[in-house]
Every structure is written in C-alpha cells, then in structure tokens.
Design a protein that fits this description.
- This protein is of the alpha+beta class.
- It folds into three domains: about 5-15 and about 235-305, Archaeosine Trna-guanine Transglycosylase, Chain: A, domain 4; about 20-90 and about 195-225, Pseudouridine synthase (2-Layer Sandwich); about 95-190, Alpha-Beta Plaits, CATH 3.30.70.
- Helix content is about 25%, strand content about 35%.
- It has nine helices and 17 strands.
- It has helices at about 25-30, 45-55, 85-90, 105-115, 165-175, 200-215, 220, 240-250, 290-295; strands at about 5, 30-40, 60, 70-80, 95-100, 120-125, 135-150, 150-160, 180-190, 195, 225, 235-240, 255, 260, 270-275, 280-285, 300-305.
- Strands 2, 3, 4, 5, 6, 7, 8, 9, 10 and 11 form a ten-stranded mixed beta sheet that branches.
- Helix 4 crosses helix 5 (about 165-175).
C-alpha cells in the first residue's frame, strides 16, 4: 500500500468534480483506456486503429509495442488520454517467454545463465525492432524459470520498459555457447495493468455494438477504465480543490495547494497530480522532494508539464 506524507489533515473534497469511477461511457471514451489482449498476427498499431474505429473515438494510441507474433496486454489510450501513453512506460513490464536452445545444455547451466541477466544489462535491440541498434542499458528486475523440457525453457521476466526479451534469449544462447532464440512471447502486465483486465477484440466489438446500436452501455462500461489507471504506478501529489482550476489553466503547483504527497519523490521525478476525488489534474516534474513539499512554507513544488483537467470544472475562486 502506498505511503503518503500529509501536509494538511483537514482537507475534505467539495461538491465539485466527480470520482473517476462515476464517469459515463461517453466520458470514458473521451478520457479512458481499454486493456486489449492483443492476438498474434496484427501489429500493435493495427490493433490500436481497430479499437479507435470500433469505439468511434477520434484518437487512440497503444502503450508499448508488441511484435506481431507476440500477444498479451496492450493498453490502448482513448481520446485525451493518448497524452499519457509515455507515462505508462515509467512502469515495469512482465512477460512469459518460451526460449528454445539451438543445442543441448545442462539445466543447471541454463538457470545460471538466466540469472546473469538480472540487474542492469547492456542490450543491442534485435534486427527486427523499431529503434536504432545501438547498445543501451536496461534493468531486469526478476527472471523466474517456470519449466525446462529438453531445449525448451519457459520463464517469466519482470523488466524495465524498453527491454527486449528476444535479445535476452539471443544473449543467453551466446553465453551458453548453444545459440538460442525466442519461440513465443506473452506480455502479462504493463505497469499496473495485468492480463486479468485484458479483453479480446471480439468482446470489445460486441460491447461497442450493444452500445452504439442497441443503446446498452453495460458491457462497454465493464471494459473501459478511467485514464487515471495509466498513472497508478506513478508517485502522486494530492491537491486542494481550491488549487485545481489554476492548475487547469496551466499554473505550476505551489506547496500551499498540497494536501499530501507520495513517499519517495525526488527532484526531477515525474509525478501525477490528483484531486481529493482521484481525478487527474496534470502530470509534471517535481521541483522538491516529498519532505520538502510537506515542510516548506512557500515555493513551487511541481512544474506543470501536461494538463488534463478542463478549466471550469472547479471554481476559480472559493466561495
């Protein structure tokens, strides 16, 4: 459970605004996310375009590319939430991978080789990747071997965004001297969005049809999530209702508008700024640590980088 430093104990939510969980389907289509269980075959861009068209939204964008042959969790941001896609990349990702060795190797050696890739590693992206093939550092948090049968190795990996599992398999094969390649890959989690939340494209299409053609929003409501889900993994700053409208107009956040802040915020960190009801107001760069935001009497705590709350939802002056 997340720990907060409290600056003002008595702050209570007003009648303004609305908890994200109470938004209508129309509001979720404008500022929401759907977690798609991407099938093998189409590109992530194709899936995002299909979601956009079947839901009838103007914009949709996926958070984290999966290769055409990979499947699993693919968050697709809707409407104004597309501007949050890069915030999702701040969270870790979890995969289940099937690696095949090109020659026999002792099971103990395979397990030891995989352990060598936990921590900070250098990677050269695979040839079939969307980025330049220059060495870069990525962090691997965990690798758990699930099963080994002959030359087939099933493992789970928790990694920093931008880590290529295909490259890990290639490099494990090089370390073993056998050669190895990725046979199948499933993403089971992106940031805080797991496969238990993922929906098939067919189910999304049926829910959209029921909503558009039959006027029944119950199915679609169950598949859409508030955009705030995309920042759940981030450090947070909760603000007074009296501060919201100024932030909605692009102002930076002063310490005097803060109610509480997540423990562990460092200067330069990206943070999500939320109302007392849990609505996302903005994302920005912290100019103070958690302790400073609580203890300082004045000053700017967070620089406003991207505003999501619309002006006028909260009053500009308190009455």
């Amino acid at each position: 459970m997340e720990t907060f430093y409290v600056r003002e104990e008595e702050a209570l939510p007003s009648r303004w605004g609305k908890p994200p969980g109470e938004r209508t389907v129309e509001e979720l289509l404008d500022f929401g996310v759907v977690i798609v269980d991407k099938p093998q075959g189409p590109t992530s861009h194709q899936v995002s375009a299909w979601v956009r068209d079947m839901l009838g939204v103007g914009k949709a964008a996926h958070a984290g590319t999966l290769d055409p042959n990979a499947h699993g969790v693919l968050p697709v941001a809707l409407g104004r939430a597309v501007r949050l896609v890069d915030m999702v990349h701040l969270g870790s990702k979890e995969y289940v991978a099937l690696m095949v060795l090109h020659a026999d190797a002792p099971e103990k050696a395979v397990r030891e080789a995989l352990r060598e890739f936990v921590g900070e590693i250098y990677q050269v992206p695979p040839v079939k990747s969307a980025v330049s093939r220059r060495p870069r550092v990525r962090r691997v948090f965990r690798i758990d071997v699930l099963e080994i049968e002959g030359r087939y190795v099933l493992f789970k990996a928790v990694v920093e965004s931008g880590t290529y599992i295909r490259a890990i398999c290639r490099d494990v094969g090089t370390l073993l001297g056998t050669g190895a390649s990725l046979r199948e890959l499933r993403r089971t989690r992106t940031a805080n969005m797991g496969e238990e939340m993922a929906v098939r494209l067919q189910d999304l299409l049926e829910a959209s049809y029921a909503y558009r053609e039959l006027g029944n929003d119950s199915l679609l409501r169950g598949l859409l999530h508030p955009a705030e889900l995309m920042v759940e993994h981030m450090k947070k700053v909760i603000v007074k209702d009296t501060a919201v409208d100024a932030l909605a107009h692009g102002a930076d956040l002063s310490v005097r508008g803060i109610v509480k802040v997540s423990e562990g915020v460092s200067r330069g960190d990206w943070v999500a700024v939320l109302t007392l009801k849990g609505e996302l107001v903005m994302v920005g760069k912290a100019l103070m640590t958690s302790a400073e935001m609580v203890e300082e009497g004045s000053g700017i705590a967070v620089r406003n980088e991207r505003t999501f709350m619309r002006p006028g939802v909260y009053p500009s002056t308190w009455k």
